[in-house]
Each structure stands twice: as C-alpha cells, then as structure tokens.
Amino acid sequence: MENIIIPQGNTNEEVKAREQVIYQFYKQWKLANPTQRKYNLSLKDYINIRQISIIETAEHAAKTYLSTLAVLQLDAILTNAQKVAVVRTKIRSRNQNQFEKMIVMGYQCVGIGAIKMIVGIKRSNKEKVQYCITHLDVDDLLYTDFCHAIQTKK
Hints:
The N and C termini lie far apart (30 Å). Helix 2 (51-61) runs antiparallel to helix 3. It contains five helices and six strands. The strands form two sheets. Strands 3-4-5-6 form a four-stranded antiparallel sheet. With 154 residues, it is α+β, with helices and mostly antiparallel strands. The model has no long low-confidence stretch (mean pLDDT 89).
C-alpha cells in the first residue's frame, strides 16, 4: 500500500476517511491474497476474510486512529493472534446470525498495543471468518486481563 495519511482526529470527516483507508487496504490485501485466508498458529486452522470482515472492521476500527493502524497489521494479526475466549453470538445482532460462536483473540502489536480480533465460526460449514479487529484501549476494564491472557497463551 502506498504512503497515506491517516487522520487522527474524531470528526465525522476523519472517521469517514479512516473507513476509506480500511476499505482500500482490504481491497489491496485481497488482490495480494487470492485465497483470502491466513493460517493461524493458535487455532491451527485458516482464518478467512469475507465481506462481513471488511464491513464490520471498517465500521468499528475507523472510530479510532489506533484501531485503523491495527487493521494495517492484518497478516501478523491473522497469523499470530492468540485465542483468549469462545463466546456466544449476540442475540440481536443480525450480522452475527450466520455464526454459531465467536472466538475472541488477542495480539500484542509493537507501537499500537493490545489488539482484539473476533473470529466467527459459521453455522453452515464451520469456516472461521475474521469478524472484527479493534485496538483495545488501556482504559478498557478488560485490558489487563486481556493482555495477561495473550501472554500466558504464548
């Protein structure tokens, strides 16, 4: 990906600009990765990128500068994220209806911090699909537990 400037503010325009950065990144990533998947060492299985991956991640990661930066580390996150927990899908989430469970995964990224990736397990074929990637803020109550879980899984 060519050098781009990622807005750091929180105005609507800056969030929209970060959304576009994420969409463009995934577009280029898909061209470079025609199988649209990466092998994850912790799950010992492939994590696939699908349209829901791009939509959910762009919607959530664009909200903060660090989450947008995290998405740009997609290869490292897909390959090296550690399984932290398996949780049920959100009952009222239409986007999660296709999944039977969600795997919460974590990755410690130098210069960015703790990254949370949600991977859905599809009901129909058990395929693992990257659902969302976001930066986990230090102010988040789960931050310490999350970072500890990442470290102990290595």
